[in-house]
Amino acid sequence: MRTIYERLREYSKTDYYGFHMPGHKRQFNMLGAEAPYAIDITEIDGFDDLHHAAGIIRDAQVRAARVYQADETHFLVNGSSVGILSAVAGVAKRGDTVLVARNCHKSVYHAVYMNGLRPVYLMPGFAPSVQLNTEVSAEAVREALEREPEIRAVIIVSPTYDGIVSDVEAIAEAVHDKGIPLIVDEAHGAHFGFHSYFPENANAKGADIVIHSLHKTLPSLTQTALLHMNGGLVNRKRVRDYLHMLQSSSPSYVLMASIDACVDLLENRREELFEPYVRMLLQTRKKLRGLQRLCVVDMEGNDPSKIIISTKNANITGRRLYQRLLEKYHLQMEMAAGTYVLAMTSAGDTKEGMERLTGALTDIDREIDSAMADESVRNADIPCLPLPDVVYISSDMENILDSLGSTRDERRTECLLWRDSAGRVSSEYAYLYPPGSPLIVPGERVTQETIDVLQWYYERGYPIEGLRRVQYIEVLPEE
Asked: Which residues does residue 344 pair with via DSSP β-bridges, in sequence order?
């Protein structure tokens, strides 16, 4: 049996090109020529301690805060997820109510569960023309805060996995009017603020806590991220305490070195890093505007590094386009959605890679005809999900399920076909990964719209995670 390392080495020598994270695209060698083993150490004399930073790591974090316009910054070696878990736990006490954008990453839902919080959800907008969720509006935030005065924190994602940017400045103003903090999951926007072609980052727009995944869109190793804190509304000690509890007690110096090397690039070589990249992006988008059946989605104010290729007018699924790009052209996309494919670009991309993408899409666009069309796509829009009906908060579900049996296999839940589950309370998550935003959460009532969405994705071949059985969902017994 070949080892994982051997498989990775073999793959690295192929001609497959990645339009996916990590942002270094296997092009950068920021750590020099050393093998990782040569610089993989523990907390020895002279090399500081992430959990009690007082030397080189403290200085590196101070620099990162300066570069990202934050008051205080912490290195994350367990990805953005640990930052989100620590941020939510640090600003809300058990039993508190929090306002959550429904399109948040699953780590937000895990934080809600772990801390026994009561979530109030905000639905993002929706653009039917491209079948894409859009931003969370500041007005919707204001209305929710007026309607639910017990809310103690607000959590949004901007940009989204697809690059959709909300008006963080206006949302922060609305949230601060109530004297509570705003947490922005800006994991996909670590490159914001370093070139005028991209939006400013959320630290500059008034957010109290901001989480960035360096590895998603910048040349940094996978699992590297930053948590920033600003202003006086956040109990920073509580957040730090949770970081100490939730991050590894043996943080990787290889990953921390990667974070610092990436920040050094941003501070000292940002023009060299971003100018050629932005020129390539502009040229690529210009070429792709000539597509006849496929369509590149351009939405003003959003992140132009995310190239969304809509298949809606081509009458093929996003999954089919994804597979064609992979199998024939050896181009690995980040994600296939119902009616679009997402190509993630970064400063690590090459001219040759961008040209391969434009050439492949131009070829496919020319080849699409009635013989290729998938009739199931025609006029088959993704059903919209309404605001969820939360019957029980997710942390209460644990006690409810425990009362039904001592082990999961013995629980007296019912496993129903989706089509028969309307009106029942789900005891399972269901989500697509990526992007990892739940379609339903334990404790929520299954609606016909939920069933329609699950069926829509299933019929088009998308794996739905979180459910134990295909086309079935576990629900609580009827009372």
From this structure: 306
